[in-house]
Design goal:
alpha/beta; Aspartate Aminotransferase, domain 2; Aspartate Aminotransferase, domain 1; binds pyridoxal-5'-phosphate; globular
Amino acid sequence: MTEKFATTCVHAGQEPDGLTGAVVPPIHLATTYAQETPGHHHGFEYSRTDNPTRHALETVLGALEGGTHALAFASGLAAETTLLMTLKPGDHVVTVDDLYGGTHRLFDRVFATHGISTTAVDARDPGEVARAWTPATVMCWIESPTNPLLKIMDIPRIAETVHAHGGVCVVDNTFATPVLQQPLTLGADVVVHSATKYLGGHSDVVGGALITNNAELAEKLRFLQNAAGAVPSPFDCWLLMRGIKTLALRVEHQNASAARIADWLASARGVARVLYPGLPHHEGHELVSALWKGRGGAMISFELVREANTDVFFRSLTTITCAESLGAVESLIELPAAMTHGAMPRDQREALGITDHLVRLSVGIEDPSDLIEDLSQALQAALHNASERS
Ligand SMILES: Cc1ncc(COP(=O)(O)O)c(C=O)c1O
């Protein structure tokens, strides 16, 4: 019998404890493990190298993404750093042009100083990836959907292009989640997660993950996980497992709510345009229909009309919280130009379409009618106070 995804979320790596029968994996806080004689132990030596709670988390992470090897890290960026440590000076990476800002900063201000260069392309056309490829290119790093413009990538075609050039195809699956898309099954070699978002799901734990079916790469990553040491604490691993138990439930509900909210926003007064892959006019709609197991995800970006006062809009929201981050049970909203993408130069931001009126909404698990009511009254207030400077 092939286990269904929601069952995997609850059970993978989480059998009742062999000693006590406890149905929840214990939090193993011990930093070191007794050895019968030097070198003879029960599978664990030192907690940075391996830890039973982390091991359980890594088992479920692998199962979620259909990967044979999974590694957990202290944050999404710690996972990314460890993956990039497999490269050497002189290597080149092709990335997408609206990459998550922190990933861009990691490439641009950390790994560039270690001799790793990048070229950012609009990978919606996989031909752009091929054109940017050089003899030094070893990796292509994409997100789908991107943030905050929710551009959709053709992962199978990009992976094919990357493999034709002998490279490694990395997909950051934080926004889509394995509920909607499993990049390894679409041809990618490595999946990256900021587990801080949907996997944890409750805005209370920072974590990251790498998942792959490539045993040779996994061995290098396992070495680096221990050698560089960016591991999560046992308590954080336990919190992530607790979050993952409800991943399918949460994301399916959030996906359905987001679709309803996007439909409503599409004709709401005060909204100039809606970016949501589940809407038929979205340019990635066909790909999403073919590749995803859900209508359009739980992230919506939309632009307020020029006359709307954005400050009043944000101040008027009562159920939806203005905050960075995403993927949690509570709905979060932000203004990328001033928050997540504030460090990007204005001309670059505007060239991409990240205007001062573009809003990004992460739909939570609240009743969608309450969220629509909240958005509706805040839009009315923003239009009413159009004269006040925003
Ligand atoms: C798409 C994406 N990847 C990676 C990260 C980095 O993860 P973390 O904040 O857990 O280090 C983030 C964080 O916002 C993200 O949105």
